[in-house]
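Q: Here's a chain of 537 amino acids. Please give me its 3D structure as tokens.
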Amino acid sequence: MQKASVLLFLAWVCFLFYAGIALFTSGFLLTRLELTNHSSCQEPPGPGSLPWGSQGKPGACWMASRFSRVVLVLIDALRFDFAQPQHSHVPREPPVSLPFLGKLSSLQRILEIQPHHARLYRSQVDPPTTTMQRLKALTTGSLPTFIDAGSNFASHAIVEDNLIKQLTSAGRRVVFMGDDTWKDLFPGAFSKAFFFPSFNVRDLDTVDNGILEHLYPTMDSGEWDVLIAHFLGVDHCGHKHGPHHPEMAKKLSQMDQVIQGLVERLENDTLLVVAGDHGMTTNGDHGGDSELEVSAALFLYSPTAVFPSTPPESFLLLHLLAAGIPVTTPGPFTVPWQAVSAWALMATQTFYSTGHQPVFPAIHWHAAFVGFPEGHGSCTWLPALLVGANTFASHLLFAVGCPLLLLWPFLCESQGLRKRQQPPGNEADARVRPEEEEEPLMEMRLRDAPQHFYAALLQLGLKYLFILGIQILACALAASILRRHLMVWKVFAPKFIFEAVGFIVSSVGLLLGIALVMRVDGAVSSWFRQLFLAQQR
């Protein structure tokens, strides 16, 4: 059996699995279909005519604008309880003081002194709670998807109708400063922009200090209609230290000073919006759909009274829409099913024993900075590669090492050289030629039956792919049967995604390992031929 035939057949089997995964994924997981058409003032949003005619009111679109300017302060990972008072009181339990509570004291003071000017809401966001997906949801009103989560490393421009495009089309001057993710989502859309690198989660101050350098001078200049400031210090502090660290209290206090400075500079026709795009877990991570991750704060303030009555005690919940080929008998290289199954299960066990879990909040994002403490600059693929390698290292290593299972039959044999049993009457011959009766073991036996060796490689690869296919089939069936379960997007769908990516990584590693073994076998065979020719001479 030729080497190329083995690799091509295994690649074809892998392709069949890939096609099955893609077919199931396209039907089960949500996908985003982007519409290229855009709304205009000449097209009413619904049936019926507008009260001031189909052309809209002069200087407005569809309805009169209540404010001339808007300041949007987006504090990444601003969880709702970060805006709560100092003491979190649970009935029948003593008050508990946490480092992140009460640091945004200006919000509570404004709500108490000017109840008709401000509101604080709990916004319930949709998973996945990653920054890029939340920005898409906030600016387009669409639902984010788990499949879209991979784009958090390398964002693409939004082509569907969005808030930024509508503002620029209406002649509004949109000024942005902060997270450079906006640069990729809305290229050339801002009249003035100050972008800062965002992926180095160990850096708590570069982005925030860069914003503060331009924020107040830009406000005082008056050359803007919409001012957007995206702060990242709170999110990075959560990733690096967690929400219970004293550094989180310092970052929230800094954000409180920013809000106070903005409130002092607001004019009567300006609306201040302070919002979080998502929350964070108790460990400071995000990406899933736990209660702490989907709970974000939303604060509105205007120097003029805009709310007719005092807010209710319970905060409002705002849902932001965001086939068979005969195989030659492998001969002495047969690998039993239990060995292949144990090898595949060891890969899964190693995945869990190294601290990984098949859910998005458990991804080790800090792995992106191993060896790069100062960050990666503008490079986006390298941190994604490092995180992926850390997550699926066990799948890759065990798949590349799978061809080593061909030595399983030899390891099961007794140690040392065994001698063939001699028929009666040949004891004298055995004493005369002991070296000729020794049975070759391990690598030497590979030279005796090369055709069996390649057939065994093919059979071993098919067995390993079959076991991996059983695992991903079980995940697909679980996600299908439990598609209406409340935990489907928290447990079953992420498990399927991790298993699918793990299968792809394992299959590529398997092909790489088999190709490497064939390359080594070819080199050893060439060396044996040269040695044999040298002995004949």
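Q: Can you summarize the key feature?
A: Confidence is low (pLDDT under 50) at residues 312-330, 414-422.
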